[in-house]
Design brief:
alpha/beta, two-stranded antiparallel ribbon, 11% strand
């Protein structure tokens, strides 16, 4: 085969692949204009996509051939479809399609069946949906639901726990530095840098005039952290992440952690922090919001203001008394409390929030911002050290 023929064949192959991709996007039928037929695995993938994203009743698209089945409300069909998409698509895509199926086709009720829960791909958004259905969940489903939630929680703790502990331990150690440390508590890197002027070339050594070291932060509680979490329906992902971080913080002996959730009522879940799954099932997503009442409760639990960090996680849509809420924040800050407001603790992008309340908090020196789970350890470290927060 000549070079020209090879190039022509490559061009034709590329063109065919481009048509195939457009056919997958457009969905087939007479209107797609590609003239490209699908077969085998492509046809099966197309059917799985059409069942969810196709038009018409039951999710089918007119003239879409294999896209005529749809999901409807049939549990066997949905369970089969869930298995298909896990076969054809990567986990990240499966999670998006599951979320779309729940929202577009109203499949929440089917998640109350154990067989359905065993077929889904667990993720943070699914956990949020299960928590919102918690009160309606039959006993036969609760154990399966807890297993799904526990799998997600363990994945998040594995991903986020080690870095959070390391970052906050470093922050606590730095805040506890002493000038006359014991030998085992000397911070050698900082000590050497501070004494480089005392380097003796003939002995190739540094004579340390001043020792810099860490206090024994791990031997006693050095800081107190109160996580105050809005459990309204829009905060589902934030509740999941905050519960995991709460359990991680509670595992650190040098931090006394309290976890409070609220809507129009306030619930203290601190005694369940050893198991974030219990924390999550102790929440009740949905309902109104009374931030002022929640902050009043948190304020009543502060015994060491200068060593306390209060983290309010809320979109700030206040249903309580706005001016009283702001007065409480101002009073806490005046007493020495580090106050952090997170509009969301998730990786879902820019959240909706009450801009007027956010601006009022910023005027009090408590800027409100959205925070990803990866950034949260750095935000907490800055708050513990009383440094400026790393606002994105």
């Amino acid at each position: 085969m000549s070079g020209v023929e090879r190039v022509r064949g490559a061009v034709e192959q590329a063109g065919g692949e481009r048509l195939r991709r457009w056919r997958m996007v457009l969905g087939g039928g007479e209107g797609d204009g590609t003239g490209c037929a699908l077969a085998g695995r492509d046809a099966e993938m197309d059917a799985a996509l059409g069942a969810l994203y196709g038009g018409g009743a039951g999710g089918s698209r007119k003239g879409a051939g294999a896209r005529s089945a749809g999901l409807g409300g049939s549990a066997p069909n949905v369970a089969r479809w869930l298995g298909d998409i896990r076969t054809y698509f990567p986990s990240s895509v499966v999670q998006v399609m599951q979320r779309d199926a729940i929202e577009r086709l109203g499949l929440s009720a089917l998640l109350l069946e154990p067989e359905m829960l065993e077929a889904v791909e667990p993720d943070v958004h699914l956990v949020g949906t299960l928590l919102s259905l918690n009160k309606a969940m039959p006993d036969t489903t609760k154990e399966t639901a807890r297993a799904v939630v526990r799998k997600v929680v363990e994945q998040l703790e594995k991903k986020l726990g080690a870095r959070t502990r390391a970052t906050l331990t470093g922050a606590l150690d730095r805040s506890a530095r002493v000038s006359r440390p014991r030998h085992h508590d000397i911070d050698w890197n900082r000590t050497i840098r501070a004494n480089l002027k005392n380097y003796l070339p003939e002995y190739r050594t540094v004579v340390p005039e001043r020792l810099i070291g860490y206090g024994r932060a791990a031997q006693s509680v050095k800081k107190e952290v109160i996580l105050c979490i809005d459990q309204s329906g829009s905060m589902a992902a934030s509740v999941v992440y905050a519960s995991v971080f709460g359990a991680v913080l509670a595992s650190m002996r040098s931090i006394a952690t309290r976890l409070v959730v609220f809507d129009t009522a306030v619930v203290d879940l601190t005694d369940q922090l050893d198991d974030p799954v219990d924390v999550l099932f102790g929440t009740q997503l949905g309902g109104g919001t009374d931030i002022n009442r929640a902050l009043a409760y948190c304020q009543s639990k502060i015994t060491r203001p200068a060593d306390t960090v209060v983290v309010l996680i809320s979109d700030l849509y206040e249903g309580g008394i706005r001016n009283e809420m702001l007065k409480r924040v101002a009073a806490m800050k005046a007493s020495g409390v580090e106050f952090v407001t997170l509009l969301a603790l998730s990786d879902e992008g820019a959240p909706a929030y009450d801009r007027e309340h956010a601006a009022a908090l910023a005027a009090l020196g408590a800027p409100a911002f959205a925070c990803t789970p990866d950034l949260f350890p750095d935000v907490m470290a800055a708050a513990l050290e009383k440094r400026p927060l790393p606002v994105p």
